Amino acid sequence: MTERITKSMAKNIYYGGGLFALLIFLGLSFDTVQQIPERSNEVNMTESVVAGKALWEKNNCVGCHTLIGEGAYYAPELMNVFNRRGASDEATFKGYMQGWMAAQPLDTPHRRKMPQFNLSTEEVDSLSDFLIWTSKVNANEWPPTIEG
């Protein structure tokens, strides 16, 4: 004996499935919002970090680089540049950033050159603080490799 699905049954399946999906979505959204304070590293945000973020946006760094996987995949991921180039030492990293930013544009064959932004020492330190802060955000082990 074969049964056919009636319009009423199909409507109940549609609304029941939609309600179930909505409840799952709301539950996962609530769980994510609950985790943000402990994962965001917001408590360590300083004025220098905020100034570095403003420089990041003003100079459109995301136009070439990625940060936490977001941006243009042209230049390296910078979420872990503090660990890569500074060996997790803030003074070492800030010195590296001062030298790197001053040396731009490098004359490397077959590569697009990073522009010279003519940032002051304080601005480079702020950008460094922003990248140091970003490296301490819990991003589920992103990026997957040390080289980004």
Polypeptide structure, described:
The protein has 148 residues and is mostly helical. It has two domains: 1-39; 43-148, Orthogonal Bundle (Cytochrome Bc1 Complex, Chain D, domain 2). Helix content is 54%, strand content 3%. The chain contains five helices and two strands, in the order H-H-E-E-H-H-H. It has helices at 7-39, 47-58, 81-86, 90-103, 121-135, and strands spanning 66-67, 70-71. The chain has a two-stranded antiparallel ribbon. Helix 4 (90-103) packs across helix 5. The chain starts with 6 loop residues before the first helix and ends in a 13-residue tail after the last helix. The model has no long low-confidence stretch (mean pLDDT 91).
Keywords:
2 strands; mainly alpha; elongated; two-stranded antiparallel sheet; Cytochrome Bc1 Complex, Chain D, domain 2; 148 residues; 3% strand
| Major sheet characteristics | 2 strands, antiparallel
* Number of helices, where a helix is a run of at least 4 consecutive DSSP H or I residues: 5
Query: In whole angstroms, how far apart are the ends?
Result: 60 Å
How many structural domains in the coordinates?
2
The coarse overall form would be: elongated
Mean pLDDT: 91
Strand content: under 5%
Q: Give, in order, the helices and strands.
A: HHEEHHH
CATH homologous superfamily (4th level) name of the largest domain = Cytochrome c-like domain
CATH topology of the largest domain: Cytochrome Bc1 Complex, Chain D, domain 2
